[in-house]
Task: structure prediction
Amino acid sequence: MSFSLSRFFAVLAKEFVQMRRDRVTFALMIGVPIMQLLIFGFAINTDPRHMPTLVEMADSGPAARAVVAGMQASGYFDIIGTVTSAAEGDRALREGSASFVLVIPPGFERDVQRGLSPELLLSVDASDPSAAAAAVGAMPGIAATAVAETLSGPVAAKATTPDPFGVTVHRQYNAEGKTSTNIVPGLLAIILAMTMVMITAVAIVREAEKGTMEALIATPVRPTEVMLGKIIPYVLVGYVQTLVFLLAAKVLFDVPFIGSRFAFFLGFNLYIVVNLALGFLISTLSRSQMQAMQISFFTLLPSILLSGFMFPFAGMPGWAQAIGTAIPATHFLRLTRKVMLKGATIPDIAPDMAAIAAIMAVIVVAAMLRYRQTLD
Amino acid sequence: MSDDLAISVRGITKRFGARTVVDSFDMDVPRGAIYGFLGPNGSGKTTTIRIMCGLLTADAGDGTCLGFDIRTEPQRIKENVGYMTQRFSLYEDLTIRENLDFVGRMYRMKGRRAAVNKALADLGLADRAGQLAGTLSGGWKQRLALAACMLHNPALLLLDEPTAGVDPKARRDFWDEIRRLSAAGVTVLVSTHYMDEAVQCDYIAYIAYGKKLISGPSQDIPAMIGLHTWRVQGPEIGALEAELRSTPGVGQVARFGAVLHVSGTDAAALEAVARAGMARGLHRWQKKEAELEEAFIYLMAGASDNFAEAAE
Result:
């Protein structure tokens, strides 16, 4: 048997023709690398800047103002406002509207001049240690430079020995800076997105692909009975996954769960529903189980890369954050971290719930439009 | 509508986008009949069947199925109809019993367990009830699918090419079962490509490009087409066959072993061909009555122009 070039080329040509005909696969072959390239190349930044920062100014003298100005100028911090009480600052950190709260103690200016070396307090949302690390590292240098610039004459001479003031960093929610404490709660969002979306899409498409759907709808069964009957089992799968997950998080990784269980339960159910809706939408777009898998995988990539799961959300450029905001995983991930690590309750997670609900509305409308087209 | 009709539809039309798949289709299926639904692939048979059992809504036309309005009462129709789809439509990863049981539950059957046991016994699958349906052979799958759609004792059975890809023995068994059901009073509407199956039907409708070309009792179909046939026997039949095919007045030539059936709609022209053939003295020419076989070959050949005009 000799190798025939013409036969070999025939097989080769046939393969290309088939590749071109399968539009979904073809689109993904081109789309996935481009998407990955764009995300990894432009969106991901492990040295995030412009972190939202609040200031509690109990002293607004020149030294304090210089510190704040220096933080803003460093690029690491975006001063988004001031707070008047510690409770207000804590709340912003818990909600996630600020990553840092700088507390300038009363009499800071005076104490610096007297050489008492007062302490600035920088409260950090350390639930994502990698997001905070760079900014925290830059802080002492920024502050020292700023104060040195504002002090002059005899005061300067007195003040520079040994240090005009100190910066105390208070890492909240993840004092030890463990990566697992941040990754594990976020992982739940990814696991659920992966299984719920894919399983739903495949389960629905399988019925159509195998031809059993036609026989099924030829019986008196109602469409709602079919849909609910097909989807509820996977909701239960999601429950089991979450339970196993929470147990493992506690036992293996010692991740705390300090927030409201009820708040988590609400958010978790909403998140499961949005994923099932997405799976349903994908099922209306695919003709085979293979396509359903591929499209599900395609939606999973941004969930992993742009949601803030692997890389700090604050470090991404505006367009990537905009895409990330449209992904349900982004909001559920925040919700889970808030509840598990920051002790959030229902009011704290309301914005995330609203965001997921809004995304769900869009998906459901799209799925319904698409479903109606393919009905007859 | 008459109570004697299981299906009675008028002017059924269905479009998919710009394509008219079924075009002003009329059909009357008498109760208890085996009604054959013939036509080439893509002629709209499956779509028509789906409309009649309430799976699709027609763009135009109306009618009844088992006395229920096909437009407004699809739910009632579904409860009383057994529909066997073209592809094996049971769950391959469920066992035989689980499949039957599931179908029974879809119809909310009372005495489901007994019905499933009886179906298994009738099939002769009682001892294999725990076997996965996907592991059955093609013929057994068809029989199981038939049993599944007969489980709720429907008055009307819609079979969409039920024996496609099944071996001849299994096909014969399958048709024995169909006739048994028909004798028990079940109306059967069956679409098929096979001539030998069409012959078994009491009534026949032939559809092409969404339009019904002809319908009526099977034995009347050849006469309705107006087909005349001569039987030719003799030596070197292959050469004669080729010659006759290009002879004017001959509509079609069908070969059955060493015998040719020469047919056409123009009796005089055909007779002239026969006379000429007899004059050559090589072959034996006999006039015979045109039968369904000839009629189907004629229809499937795309019909000649005069027929297409006559149908319009």
About this structure: Residues 265 and 301 of chain B are 14 Å apart (CA to CA). Chain B touches chain A at residues 16, 53, 55-57, 75, 78-79, 81, 83-92, 103, 106-108, 149 (CB under 8 Å). Confidence is low (pLDDT under 50) at residues 303-312 of chain B. Residues 168-183 of chain B form the longest helix (16 residues).
